[in-house]
Design the sequence.
């Protein structure tokens, strides 16, 4: 039996690409997604009604309309809209333009070892780019470090890169982020981590990484063990993470739901009710233990 190909394009006005079908005449969604990352289905324009029609999708398998693909050009569906790629390119360009004029901010460095000096801090962060300022916060009376400090860079891109990862300074992991005071009064710190619900056991961390890289740089993927049908994906840019929250995306033929991974403050107070009769400090420790177990915080 000769191999059958169907014509698929990202837009009706673009040149189509031929996608191979299976022996039974169906087409795997994964085959389409291999050429058009993020694709969640196909549609076509009916020769009779001239309206767009969706191609039936069952468990990751696309079935030909009336059992015949014909010579039609099938257009790729994306989770958000029909012109996702164009919109993403425009959005990425807008972000680059915006970043080009943005100024850097003081970053707070949390978790510093007591022995770390300002020179140590400058030597470490200078490996990322030009440093304008470093400061280790110290107790006024004793002069001892308070375990945190500040750093500021010349280049905004360097700032973004530094915030996208953890840092090993003098043998201890430290985090860099914008201080809460840099956010607006009604705008909380935005998370770079998203919660991916409805995952299946055949989704590997590498497959999730490859899928989400189409939206932006991925710095970490975490799947709890034993498997609990969810995962966490961390992006380098919080804007990418927040743009995906609330979306339903198709991964390996399965619809997964994306939401914010950060617990809300009022959830902490709610958790206290689960630990009656304990002191506030014990309740707080227990609450975060629950969060660590249920949300996979590390």
Sequence:
């Amino acid at each position: 039996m000769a191999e059958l190909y169907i014509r698929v394009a990202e837009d009706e006005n673009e040149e189509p690409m031929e996608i191979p079908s299976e022996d039974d005449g169906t087409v795997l969604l994964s085959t389409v997604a291999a050429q058009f990352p993020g694709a969640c289905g196909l549609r076509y324009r009916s020769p009779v009604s001239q309206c767009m029609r969706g191609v039936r999708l069952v468990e990751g398998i696309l079935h030909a309309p009336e059992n015949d693909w014909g010579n039609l050009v099938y257009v790729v569906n994306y989770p958000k809209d029909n012109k996702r790629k164009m919109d993403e390119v425009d959005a990425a360009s807008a972000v680059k333009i915006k970043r080009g004029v943005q100024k850097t901010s003081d970053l707070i460095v949390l978790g510093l070892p007591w022995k770390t000096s300002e020179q140590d801090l400058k030597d470490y962060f200078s490996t990322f780019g030009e440093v304008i300022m470093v400061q280790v916060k110290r107790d006024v009376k004793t002069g001892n470090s308070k375990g945190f400090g500040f750093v500021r860079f010349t280049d905004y891109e360097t700032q973004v890169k530094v915030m996208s990862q953890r840092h090993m300074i003098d043998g201890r992991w430290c985090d860099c982020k914008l201080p809460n005071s840099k956010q607006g009064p009604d705008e909380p710190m935005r998370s770079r981590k998203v919660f991916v619900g409805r995952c299946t056991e055949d989704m590997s961390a590498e497959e999730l990484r490859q899928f989400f890289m189409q939206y932006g740089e991925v710095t970490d993927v975490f799947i709890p063990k034993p498997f609990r049908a969810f995962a966490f994906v961390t992006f380098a840019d919080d804007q990418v993470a927040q743009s995906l929250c609330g979306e339903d995306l198709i991964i390996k033929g399965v619809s997964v739901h994306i939401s914010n991974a950060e617990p809300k403050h009022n959830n902490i107070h709610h958790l206290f009710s689960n630990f009656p009769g304990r002191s506030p400090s014990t309740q707080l420790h227990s609450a975060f233990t629950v969060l660590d177990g249920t949300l996979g915080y590390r």
Notes: The two ends are 53 Å apart (CA to CA).
